[in-house]
Amino acid sequence: MAFAKISQVAHYVPEQIVTNEDLAQVMDTSDEWISSRTGIKERRISKTESTGDLATAVAKQLLEKSGISAEELDFIILATMTPDSMMPSTAARVQARIGARKAFAFDLTAACSGFTFALSTAEKFISSGRFGKGLVIGSETMSKTLDWTDRSTAVLFGDGAGGVLLEASDKQHFLAESLNSDGSRSECLTYGQTGLTSPFSVQENPDAFLKMDGRAVFDFAIRDVAKSIKNTIEESPLSAEELDYLLLHQANIRILDKMARKIGVDRDKLPANMTKYGNTSAASIPILLSECVEEGLIRLDGSQKILLSGFGGGLTWGTLIVTI
Ligand code: ACO
């Protein structure tokens, strides 16, 4: 029986910082509104780097930190809703740029749940016993999805990437998981809708910008996602008290406050960095994980238990409990 473990983490964000005050210069908003409603103070916005560029920087760091060569990789899974192109996949671009000749590579789209869905998928490849090493990366340039005249969405998102190296292990590290979708509620979060464009089709081009019913998503998070996290903990061999940290998708600080209460864990167990980065969709959990390691909260020595949970467009939500 093969098992998988997260053996290295890394993140990379574009250099340009856009503060709430900067946004207030170009749209009718304020630092007071954004901070009090969301907890976000600033975000990174790419000037030139694409989703593939950010992901490549993460992939290179993962190889360097772990001391393995790109040729040892069996796969690269890239979670993104902002690929550089539909074909080739952004994962294939990363594979070429780092020289991972042996690896198969593909993109996976599940909006803000993308990283948890990708990590779960990768774990199945490794535990099949056929693959020994792979990268799982969440990378997004959310800035290209936004209608910059719509203050209700433009202030919420940012660009960035994070990822992990997953390797075969002789011990079990993935303790529980729950992956969920509810397409019947998809209308409350949409982006990138495409239409038929042939001369033989009759269809108006749909609005492609990101659209969100913020209140519906907020309610979904604190109701459905909190309940699902609680159930996943109950079905796992651990209690909530035994978890060292819960790394939740970074959308809104008020969601984290309410989640902690609903799940019944100390608020200090839910680290937050949306203050600096906003909502980076599939990149938010691996960026947070990597920062927790940099800050010494997570030691990567196999002794800690953490819960990862993403939620968003689809609707989708996914939770994993791992030792790390
Ligand atoms: N600046 C100033 N005022 C604003 C802004 C802004 N940037 N945006 C909206 N407003 C105004 C609105 O026009 C409205 O004014 P009105 O009352 O005069 O009509 C008022 O503020 C209240 O707007 P609401 O949308 O009701 O504000 P709410 O308190 O619900 O907060 C928010 C909005 C922050 C988006 C919240 O609903 C939220 O965080 N939702 C969850 C989002 C989320 O978690 N997304 C994750 C998934 S994303 C993914 O998967 C890609």
Automatic annotation (TrEMBL):
<dbReference type="InterPro" id="IPR004655">
    <property type="entry name" value="FabH"/>
</dbReference>
<comment type="similarity">
    <text>Belongs to the thiolase-like superfamily. FabH family.</text>
</comment>
<comment type="subunit">
    <text>Homodimer.</text>
</comment>
<keyword id="KW-0012">Acyltransferase</keyword>
<keyword id="KW-0443">Lipid metabolism</keyword>
<comment type="function">
    <text>Catalyzes the condensation reaction of fatty acid synthesis by the addition to an acyl acceptor of two carbons from malonyl-ACP. Catalyzes the first condensation reaction which initiates fatty acid synthesis and may therefore play a role in governing the total rate of fatty acid production. Possesses both acetoacetyl-ACP synthase and acetyl transacylase activities. Its substrate specificity determines the biosynthesis of branched-chain and/or straight-chain of fatty acids.</text>
</comment>
<protein>
    <recommendedName>
        <fullName>Beta-ketoacyl-[acyl-carrier-protein] synthase III</fullName>
        <ecNumber>2.3.1.180</ecNumber>
    </recommendedName>
</protein>
<feature type="active site">
    <location>
        <position position="279"/>
    </location>
</feature>
<dbReference type="InterPro" id="IPR013751">
    <property type="entry name" value="ACP_syn_III_N"/>
</dbReference>
<keyword id="KW-0963">Cytoplasm</keyword>
<dbReference type="Pfam" id="PF08541">
    <property type="entry name" value="ACP_syn_III_C"/>
</dbReference>
<keyword id="KW-0511">Multifunctional enzyme</keyword>
<dbReference type="InterPro" id="IPR016039">
    <property type="entry name" value="Thiolase-like"/>
</dbReference>
<dbReference type="InterPro" id="IPR013747">
    <property type="entry name" value="ACP_syn_III_C"/>
</dbReference>
<dbReference type="Pfam" id="PF08545">
    <property type="entry name" value="ACP_syn_III"/>
</dbReference>
<feature type="domain" description="Beta-ketoacyl-[acyl-carrier-protein] synthase III C-terminal">
    <location>
        <begin position="234"/>
        <end position="323"/>
    </location>
</feature>
<keyword id="KW-0276">Fatty acid metabolism</keyword>
<dbReference type="GO" id="GO:0033818">
    <property type="term" value="F:beta-ketoacyl-acyl-carrier-protein synthase III activity"/>
</dbReference>
<feature type="active site">
    <location>
        <position position="249"/>
    </location>
</feature>
<feature type="active site">
    <location>
        <position position="112"/>
    </location>
</feature>
<keyword id="KW-0275">Fatty acid biosynthesis</keyword>
<feature type="region of interest" description="ACP-binding">
    <location>
        <begin position="250"/>
        <end position="254"/>
    </location>
</feature>
<feature type="domain" description="Beta-ketoacyl-[acyl-carrier-protein] synthase III N-terminal">
    <location>
        <begin position="106"/>
        <end position="183"/>
    </location>
</feature>
<comment type="pathway">
    <text>Lipid metabolism; fatty acid biosynthesis.</text>
</comment>
<keyword id="KW-0444">Lipid biosynthesis</keyword>
<keyword id="KW-0808">Transferase</keyword>
